[in-house]
Design goal:
Radius of gyration: 17 Å
Strand content: under 5%
Structural class: mainly alpha
Number of strands: 0
Helix content: 55-70%
Largest sheet: none
Shape: flat
Mean pLDDT: 78
Order of helices and strands: HHHH
Amino acid sequence: MPAALPFRAAVAVLALIPESQLPIPVQVLVPVVHALTDGLLQQRFLTPELVPDEAIYAAFAALAGECKPASVGDPSERAEAIDVDHHPDGSG
């Protein structure tokens, strides 16, 4: 990431939201949001069934302090997606 990018992003964030309303200092928030976005998107590309839109929305809502107990998707579908008894090589 170019060195100027986090600075410009921090300035843009502070233009929209007063620093007193941020959940963490802006110089920490910018790289955290960047890393969270990269990680969620990479995982979504690899296993889209494990990272539905709702999971992405919930992650950013939690970061914004809007976290509330909620179900993300149907648990039975999630259990099927994480089938520990199934082996891709057919051995299980």
